[in-house]
Every structure is written in structure tokens, then in C-alpha cells.
Design goal:
This protein is an alpha/beta fold. About 40% of the residues lie in helices and about 10% in strands. It is built from 15 helices and eleven strands. It has a seven-stranded mixed β-sheet with strand order 1-7-6-5-4-2-3, sandwiched between helices. A four-stranded antiparallel β-sheet has the order 8-9-11-10. Helix 4 packs antiparallel against helix 13 and helix 6 packs across helix 7. The longest helix has about 35 residues.
């Protein structure tokens, strides 16, 4: 039992921790087994959860494991009713946020070990395992050899999110261009209107963009009919900025945009940077494949890698669609030296013989924060448990389900595809009725989505896609398939519910 004497710190004893740990793992396993019994989206009003929590912190702790009965009760009464169940097989919103048994066990082990892996010397296993696991992942996804740590100049690192990866890439690009020019310059970054909002945030954090409305220093360019960045528009914008005395330094291309899963033409974009002299000036091409990158474990999807040998960095999120729980972003660069030059700071208290030897990697120099968890453990567990074959089967099944859903949409006279299916993402909507105003069509689609989500049986989200060739923008429903326990029966169930709601049933 814990020592409850006055003034004693009531740590859990090893045996108490063992009993509670077993119970918590049982609770999680039971939660997964009853996921289908919960409404997918939280059915609470703002403030409902807070109203169930005391206004002040407890003076007395729970003591030993017997006192934890209150915690498990609150999990059921306070936490579960306020959750949107991202692991539900009927969660089709946003993009997936996968969790799997092996990943959760890896996270538990990481927390239990309590490693702070900022330097090689603070835990060599944490650093060297991350290096090896990122090389495994590069091989599994068919990335160019230049992104591997054994290439001599490149390598991979686990960032928290794709947003952090974009920021790190932009900081490295800014420093490299400044060094190359030998002077300060008015810098300009480029991406498409369909790119993730993290590109704008990165530009603001870097001091490149002056605010959210700064369209001079972050050029968000229009897209083609498939919502991909047009290379000719990029080239025109770059030449305009060069003529105005500004310095292009960074381009973010997207593979699998959030709204529609659009794929930017990476090779053509790289050619633009070469023709305009941006590459020669040290300019940086980053590829954000946050969601779609996981599909690269399947050889049939590696066409999206075309031109990747010319990019400076690439990132995707195993925590989206590769069974590794949040947070886990795989970030690769062909030039790790650029990261070190931009991000390395060496206070006296971090100096050590291993770092001074130059023979080790200190991942604190590859990221924004100093501290870092042992995140490689959960990715290591996932790759070892599923193997390449299991991961391919997982991705392929979701793509097959999306193909089925898209075929049902196409066969129904009430619905239409808004864009061609992109991997496991289907963008669709109710067809306009004869003579119907676009705003009225949008309103019907919005109502359909609201009724579906209010039922609690499934959860989808929407986007608004810009019009093409002068057409108005469209409100579109997104069916993003990717939850670990989703089967075809769940996909069929949401389709049948949508069809019934559309027909007024």
C-alpha cells in the first residue's frame, strides 16, 4: 500500500501500478470492442463536460489503487459522453487518426521509460532506433535513396505533425537562401490555395508573412480543374517577384490536399524552380503528403513519387493512415546540414563528447523544441507487428471500400462525384435540381450532412471547392475512409443512410 502518513508523497507502489495498468488496458480494450455502441460525434453542448468537473483542484489525493475507482467512474460518466470517437468504424470525417494495439503499447512503453531523447548521449537507443526505423519507412514507401541516413547527406526524423515539418523546412530554406545570397532579402514563399493552412502559419512564424492576409510574401496560387497547383502560374508568379526585387525561397507542393485529395505535379514544379534560377539560389521545394503518403507502402500508388528526387524535403503522417497513434510525422530531407545550420544552438550545458565527435545525430537540431519523446518505439512496434504485407493489405482495403462507395454515388441519380476519387477519399454531393440556384444546392447538401451527423450513426465533414472556369464554388461532402476497424458493412450503412435521407425517408 502507498504510504499515507502526513507529509508523505502517495506514489503508486509497483504492485498498485501493475493492478491499475492491467485495469486500464482492459478498459481500453473494452472501449474498442464497444465503439459501435456510441454516437460517433459527441452529443454535448459547450460547457457540459466542464459542468461535471469540480471548480477547484482536490486537496486530498486518491491514495492507492482503491481510490482510483472514482477515476474509472468518471471515465464513463464524464469523458466518454464528451468524446467524438475517432476510432469508430463509422468515423469518416477530416482524415483518419489511427490508433492500433501495437502503437498504444509502444506509447505506453515510451511513457514508462520516460526518456528525454534530445541528444544521442541522453539515450543512444532512442536516437539510433529512430534513425533505423525512418530508414525502414523510407524503403517501405519507395522514397529516393537520398532521403535515407546512409546516403551521407540526408535522413529522416520524427516530427510531431506535418505542420511542424513544414515549419522546419521553411526555417531551413530561409537560412540556406540567406547564406547563399550573403545578405538579407525580401523573401517570398509559394503554395496553392488548396494547400494546408499550416503553410501560411509557418510563413507567419518565420516572419516571412506579415499576417494571414499577406499575399505578397506568401503567394497562394490558383489551381487547375483537378485542384492541383498549375506550374505555369507558379512560374509567372516567381518571375514577377524576381522582377520586383523579391527573392523566391520556398515552395510547398501537396500530395493529397485536405479538401479533395489533389496531387500537385511535383516534377513540373521542380522544373520551374530550375528554369527560374530559384534552385541555384538555394530555394527549397517541400512536399506535404500528410495523409496520402501512407499509401506509398503499396507499389501501385507510387506514381505520386514522380519528381521526388528533385525535392529538398518530404513528410507524411503515419498517425493519419498507418496505424500509429498521434503524434508521429515522418520528415525526410536530402540535406540535413541545412537543418543543422538553421536550428542548431549549443549552450554549454548540452556539450558532450559524443556530439563534439561529429559521429552521432542529435535530433534536437532537426526540430523546433529541445525535448523529444521516444516516439520511434510505437512506429517500431507497428512496423514489426504488421510487416509490409499487413500494411499494404490495410491501405488496399480502405481504397477498395472507397472505390465501392464512389461506384454507389455514380449509380444514384440523386448524387454526383464532385471530384474523382483520391485513394480512400470520396468527395460527393447531391446533384443540382433543374433550374436550382447554386446556393440552394449548397443548402440541401449542408442540411443532408447535418441530419446524417446528428443521427450519431456516422460522422462526415465537408469542404468548399472553388469553381472551375468561372463556375461558382460548391459545398461538398467528404467521405474519408481510414479508421482501423472500418469494414465494408460500415461504408454501406452510411451510404444507405445518405440515400434514404436524400429521398426523404
Amino acid at each position: 500500500m502507498s504510504d499515507a502518513r502526513e507529509g508523505a508523497v502517495p506514489h503508486l507502489s509497483p504492485e498498485e501500478f501493475r493492478r491499475l495498468g492491467h485495469r486500464m488496458v482492459d478498459w481500453i480494450a473494452d472501449y474498442w470492442s464497444r465503439l459501435e455502441s456510441f454516437p460517433v460525434r459527441a452529443a454535448v453542448a459547450p460547457g457540459d463536460v466542464m459542468a461535471k468537473l469540480p471548480a477547484h483542484p482536490p486537496e486530498e489525493g486518491l491514495g492507492g489503487d482503491a481510490g482510483w475507482e472514482a477515476i474509472f467512474k468518471d471515465l464513463e460518466d464524464v469523458v466518454l459522453p464528451g468524446l467524438t470517437h475517432w476510432q469508430s468504424p463509422s468515423f469518416f470525417a477530416y482524415f483518419p487518426a489511427n490508433a492500433s494495439g501495437p502503437a498504444v503499447l509502444g506509447e505506453l512503453l515510451s511513457a514508462g521509460l520516460g526518456v528525454q531523447g534530445m541528444l544521442w548521449s541522453t539515450s543512444p537507443a532512442a536516437t539510433e532506433m529512430e534513425t533505423r526505423v525512418l530508414d525502414w519507412l523510407a524503403e517501405l514507401t519507395g522514397l529516393p535513396a537520398s532521403f535515407r541516413s546512409d546516403s551521407g547527406t540526408g535522413g529522416g526524423v520524427i516530427q510531431g505533425t506535418a505542420s511542424e515539418a513544414t515549419l522546419v523546412a521553411m526555417v531551413a530554406a530561409r537560412e540556406r537562401v540567406r547564406r547563399g545570397l550573403g545578405r538579407e532579402a525580401e523573401l517570398v514563399a509559394y503554395t496553392s490555395t488548396q494547400a494546408h493552412s499550416s503553410v501560411l502559419k509557418a510563413a507567419m512564424l518565420c516572419g516571412v508573412a506579415r499576417g494571414v492576409s499577406d499575399d505578397v510574401h506568401l503567394r497562394q496560387l490558383g489551381t487547375d480543374g483537378a485542384y492541383a497547383l498549375r506550374p505555369e502560374d507558379l512560374e509567372r508568379a516567381i518571375r514577377e517577384d524576381l522582377a520586383a526585387g523579391r527573392q523566391p525561397f520556398f515552395v510547398c507542393a501537396s500530395l493529397g490536399t485536405t479538401s479533395s485529395g489533389a496531387m500537385d505535379p511535383v516534377r513540373a514544379i521542380a522544373h520551374v524552380l530550375e528554369r527560374t534560377g530559384v534552385t541555384a539560389a538555394g530555394g527549397w521545394l517541400h512536399v506535404d503528403a500528410a495523409w496520402a503518403g501512407s499509401a506509398l507502402v503499396c507499389p501501385e500508388h507510387r506514381g505520386m513519387l514522380e519528381g521526388l528526387e528533385a525535392v529538398d524535403s518530404f513528410s507524411f503522417n503515419p498517425h493519419k493512415w498507418l496505424l500509429t497513434n498521434f503524434d508521429c510525422n515522418a520528415f525526410y530531407t536530402r540535406e540535413r546540414k541545412a537543418l543543422l545550420e538553421a536550428l542548431s544552438v549549443m549552450p554549454e550545458y548540452l556539450r558532450n563528447a559524443a556530439t563534439a565527435s561529429g559521429a552521432v545525430i542529435d535530433y534536437r537540431d532537426w526540430q523546433v523544441p529541445l525535448g523529444r519523446r521516444f516516439r520511434a518505439l510505437k512506429l517500431w512496434f507497428v512496423l514489426r507487428h504488421y510487416g509490409a504485407r499487413g500494411l499494404r493489405a490495410y491501405i488496399r482495403e480502405h481504397v477498395r471500400q472507397a472505390e465501392r462507395f464512389a461506384s454507389w454515388v455514380q449509380a444514384d441519380e440523386c448524387f454526383e462525384l464532385a471530384t474523382p476519387r483520391s485513394l480512400a477519399l470520396v468527395c460527393f454531393r447531391l446533384r443540382p435540381e433543374p433550374g436550382e440556384e447554386p446556393s440552394a444546392t449548397d443548402a440541401r447538401n449542408r442540411q443532408l450532412l447535418e441530419r446524417l451527423n446528428a443521427s450519431g450513426k456516422a460522422f462526415l465533414t465537408h469542404t468548399v471547392l472553388p469553381g472551375v472556369d468561372g463556375a461558382p464554388a460548391r459545398y461538398v461532402l467528404r467521405m474519408a475512409i481510414g479508421a482501423p476497424r472500418t469494414e465494408e458493412r460500415h461504408v454501406r450503412a452510411v451510404w444507405e443512410q445518405l440515400a434514404a435521407l436524400a429521398k426523404g425517408a
